[in-house]
Design brief:
Strand content: 5-15%
Order of helices and strands: EEEHEHEHEHEHEHEHHEHH
Shape: globular
Helix content: 40-55%
CATH class: Alpha Beta
CATH topology: TIM Barrel
Number of helices: 10
CATH architecture: Alpha-Beta Barrel
Bound molecules: 1-butanol
Structural class: alpha/beta
Radius of gyration: 18 Å
Length: about 280
């Protein structure tokens, strides 16, 4: 399976989305954010994933202006839950923060069914997409029932669903449903949100066989499974290490061993319960 850092996956509207990117969730410190984005660009990353709630869109915008070229990059941000009824204003604020006139992908962050506004938000996001200011639109943390409701109400299928996904929470059923609908699956927290030591003993022999780290094996496993990934790090050596996953291949046995690690354990809130 041949990939490189330029590899893309085609979204349902024909837009090519990079398979590998930098996540910046929980990066609040400006120097850390700048170091992370600078290291990523130096390592040829060309996809950056932020969100209005991360509070760092303006730092991402400035780091891109200082270290990169906006037009060479695939920039993603997300509509926060409290803004579901005011998506247009929230989107314009994100564009301003990011110092850009468009994003490559705009995602609805959580469905938050208790708010009762995600269908309304999806309709507004379709208008934003039709205006050309978001080259693609999708969702995050959507279960099948949330997708069905949004699609039934609008006839418009999200292009991407970004969800928590790692070896302990593999989300095969949701992925099968989404792929049948033409929705690209994207993993956040691809390295288990700090729980990697729980599964390292199983992955270490695979890592040793390929001369890679456990993290590199896990990232490669996502890619070979057809997922888009956005690992986060603020440490330059780790940003570089995360990108060195394009020079080896996991074999069928490796993939099967990692498949056994699924425990249906999520570390982030259940999207039905999330009421933030
Ligand atoms: C609450 C944020 C989860 C990852 O985007």
């Amino acid at each position: 399976m041949d990939f490189d850092i330029r590899s893309t996956i085609k979204l349902s509207n024909g837009i090519e989305m990079p398979r590998f990117g930098l996540g910046v969730w929980q990066v609040k410190d400006e120097n850390e954010l700048r170091t992370s984005v600078k290291s990523a660009l130096e390592n040829k990353y060309w996809h950056i994933d932020t969100a209005q709630i991360y509070g760092n869109e303006h730092m991402v915008g400035q780091a891109i202006a200082d270290f990169g070229k906006r037009d060479d990059l695939f920039v993603v941000t997300k509509l926060w839950n409290a803004d579901q009824a005011n998506a247009e204003a929230a989107f314009e604020a994100s564009l301003k923060n990011l110092q850009t006139d468009h994003v490559d992908l705009y995602l609805m962050h959580w469905p938050c069914p208790k708010r009762g506004t995600y269908v309304q938000a999806w309709k507004s996001m379709i208008d934003i997409y039709k205006s050309g200011r978001a080259k693609a639109i999708g969702v995050s943390n959507f279960k099948q029932e949330h997708l069905e409701r949004a699609i039934d109400a609008t006839g418009f299928v999200p292009m991407v669903n970004q969800v928590e996904r790692h070896p302990m929470y593999q989300q095969d059923e949701l992925a099968a449903y989404c792929r049948a609908k033409g929705i690209v699956m994207e993993a956040y927290s691809p390295l288990t949100s700090g729980h990697m030591s729980d599964i390292a003993p199983t992955i270490e022999p695979i890592a040793k066989k390929h001369g890679k780290s456990v993290a590199q094996v896990i990232l490669r496993w996502h890619l070979q499974g057809g997922w888009v990934i956005i690992p986060k790090s603020v440490t330059p050596s780790r940003v570089a290490e995360n990108a060195r996953i394009f020079d080896f291949n996991l074999d069928d046995d490796d993939m099967k061993i990692i498949a056994t690690l699924d425990r249906n354990v999520r570390f982030l809130p259940d999207p039905d319960e999330a009421d933030f």
